[in-house]
Write a structure and sequence with these properties.
This protein is an alpha+beta fold. It is built from 2 helices and 14 strands, in the order E-E-H-E-H-E-E-E-E-E-E-E-E-E-E-E. The chain has helices spanning 22-45, 74-78, and strands spanning 2-5, 15-18, 57-63, 81-86, 92-93, 98-100, 106-108, 113-114, 119-123, 133-135, 147-153, 159-166, 178-181, 184-186. The two termini are 48 Å apart.
């Protein structure tokens, strides 16, 4: 016999006896587990993988629309950039990590150790690399103003972080700044 307090009714707070058999509870739990397992199975079968742990390195900001006129000058190209931030206290070796867009334009980091709690800005144009700024050395814009995705992968090619904006991939929703970090979508 199970005693449950009355939440509503003639006398709030009175105890009411309810008879529930252990067999019924076990059966209900088994049905619930089967339903949840049945929902998870199709996602795995479709090639989707469970959410990976949060990464320590993230795409923290994207300036995909160069301020001012898009005149393809080196100054304008370098005003289009992506910030990559190390959120931990320890340094991370970014050698052979890549940053790419949906069209396949890819920048590969070379000889860069990103110190703890620091950011490196990846500019589109030509310039001299430093600990805080690196340059793709391109003569054309990379990031589409209307819609694109910036994808960061580690040296093994595994997804580290991804940021999308605008209408893209056949989706009618607006994805300004939608973030995906190791499989976890967040806004």
């Amino acid at each position: 016999m199970l005693h449950v307090p009355v939440v509503s009714g003639p006398e709030k707070g009175d105890l009411v006896s309810v008879s529930v058999s252990a067999r019924r509870l076990t059966a209900a739990a088994a049905v619930a587990a089967a339903c949840i397992g049945g929902l998870a199975l199709p996602a795995a079968a479709a090639g989707q993988y469970p959410v990976r742990p949060h990464s320590d390195v993230v795409i923290s900001k994207v300036q995909y629309d160069s301020p001012g006129r898009d005149d393809r000058s080196n100054r304008s190209l370098n005003r289009e950039w992506v910030d990559v931030t190390n959120t931990t206290r320890r340094s991370v070796n970014l050698d052979d990590w890549t940053l790419s867009d949906e069209a396949g334009h890819t920048y590969t980091f070379r000889h860069l150790r990103l110190e703890g709690r620091s950011t490196v800005r990846v500019h589109t144009g030509i310039g001299r690399d430093s600990a805080t700024d690196v340059y793709q050395d391109r003569r054309a814009y990379v990031w589409n103003d209307d819609a694109d995705t910036a994808t960061l992968r580690n040296a093994r090619g595994r997804l580290v972080d991804e940021v999308s904006w605008g209408h893209h991939r056949g989706d009618d929703r607006d994805h300004r700044g939608e973030h995906r970090n190791g499989g976890d979508m967040r806004r």
